[in-house]
Amino acid sequence: MTEHNGEMKRNLKTRHVSMIALGGSIGTGLFVASGATIAQAGPSGAIVAYLAIGVMVYFLMTSLGEMATYSPTSGSFSDYAGKYVDPALGFAMGWNYWFNWAITLAVDIVAVGLVSNFWFPHTPAWLFSAAALILIFLINLFSVGAFGEAEFWLSMVKVVTIIAFLIVGIATIFGIIHSDINVMKNLSVGHHGFVGGPQAVLSVFVVAGFSFQGTELIGITAGEAKDPDKSVPKAINQVFWRILLFYILAIFVISALVYYQDPRLLSSSTENIAVSPFTIVFKNAGIAFAASLMNAVILTSIVSSANSGSYASTRMLYAMARKGEAPKIFAKVSKRGVPVAALLLTTAIGLLAFISNTKGGSVAYTWLVNASGLTGFIAWVGIAISHYRFRRAYVAQGKDLNALKYKAKWFPFGPLFALIISIGVIIGQDPASFAHLNLEKIAVTYLSVPLFVILYVGYKIRHKTKLIKLESVDLSQEQ
C-alpha cells in the first residue's frame, strides 16, 4: 500500500452515481417489508406513509445535493456538519455513520447465508456469508470504478425486477392475465383503504424510513464522481421520481392483488422468501419459479447493500482521518485511489460481528445491530441541520445564491420539514416502551441515540468547541 497524496480517483460516472443513489433505496424494505405495511395500515395508509417519507427524502437529497455540488467530498455530511454547524457534530456524525455501515455489512453477510439456504438447505450458511464478504472486499479493493460498475449492475437487477413486477401486476389488475381477484374490494378495505387510524400510518412511517435508508450515499459518491456538478443534480432529479414511481406503484399493485389480511403478508422475511408480496403476485400470475426468482433478487439486494455499506464506511473513515478525527493510517490510499487500511478495518468489524453471531454470541450481535439501528436517521437529522446552516451562512456572508451550481428548492421549508419528520421517526420507533417505562426495550430500541450523544459531548468537552457563528462559517470549496 502506498500513499498517493491522500487523494482518491474521480472515476464514478454519472450512470454510476444515479444507479448507486437509486439502488441504495431499493432493497428488502420494498421486496420483503412492504407487505407488512399494507397489513398494518391498509392500502391507502401504506401509500400515504411512503409518499410522505419519499417527499421528505427528496428534500434531504436536494439539501445534500446543494452542499455536495458546492464542495464535493467523501466525508459528505460529516464534513458539512463540522464546517457549517459545530466540529463536535461532524465528529459524532462521522463515527456514527461509519459504525452504522460496518455493522450493516455484518448483518447483510449473515442474511446472505440465510437466503442462500433456500437453494442449499444442507450447506452451512457461513460458507455463503464468507464467500460474499470476500467478494465485496475484492470489489472495493480493486478501484472505485469497480465498485461503481458492480453496484450499477446489482442495482439494475432490482430495477428490472420491479418493472417486470409492475407489468405483471397491472396486467393482472386489468384482466389481461386471468384472475378472480376482487381488486376494488382489496383497495377499499376499512375506511377507503385506511386501517388502524393515524397511529397505524405513523407506525408505517418508521418502516418506510428504513426502506429509504441509503439515499444519502449520493453525498459520499460526490467525492469520487467525475463531474459532480452535473452527475449529482441529475441523480437527485431522476432518483426522486423513480423512487416514487417504484415504491408507490409497487405498493398499489400489491394492495390491489393481495388482501390486506392475507396472513402471508406478515410472514415475509429474508428467511421466508416464499411469502414475499412480490412472490405472491408472481405466483398468482402463473409464474411457477416465482419464489426462486425473488430469492435471487433479494440475494442481489443484500449483496448490493453490503457492497454499498463497505464503500460508505470506508470513505467516511478515510475522510475523518484526513481531518485528524481518526488515526492517520486510514487516510492513506493505494495507487488505485482506494483507502485500503480503512477498508481492512471496516471488513474486520463486519467479520467480528458476523463471527459473534455464528459462534453463539447472539446477544452481543443483537446489541451491535440495535446500536446501529437509528444511526441512518441521525445522519438525516445532521444533513437537514447542516444545510439550514449552510444556506443561512451563505446569505449572511453576502454571497450570491444564483452562483450556486445546484440550488435546493423550497428553502427553508425543505430542510425544516425533513428535520421534523426525521426526529419524529426516531421518537416513533417504540413510544409504547416509554409509556410503560420498559427500560430494557428503551435501551434496545434507542441505543444509538445515547452513543451519538456521548461522541458529541465527549468531543465538545475535550476540544471546547462551540456553535460556529454564521459570519465565521468556512465556506471554502476545498475538495
From TrEMBL:
Domain Amino acid permease/ SLC12A stretches: 16-467
Record keyword Transport present: yes
PROSITE patterns in the cross-refs: AMINO_ACID_PERMEASE_1
Membrane topology designation: Multi-pass membrane protein
TM regions (residue ranges): 20-41, 47-64, 98-120, 126-147, 159-179, 199-218, 239-260, 280-306, 337-355, 367-390, 410-429, 441-459
Family annotation (Pfam families): AA_permease (PF00324)
Entry keywords, A to Z: Amino-acid transport, Membrane, Transmembrane, Transmembrane helix, Transport
Subcellular location: Membrane
Transmembrane is among the record's keywords: yes
Protein name from the UniProt record: Amino acid permease
Species of origin: Leuconostoc holzapfelii
Classification lineage: Bacteria, Bacillati, Bacillota, Bacilli, Lactobacillales
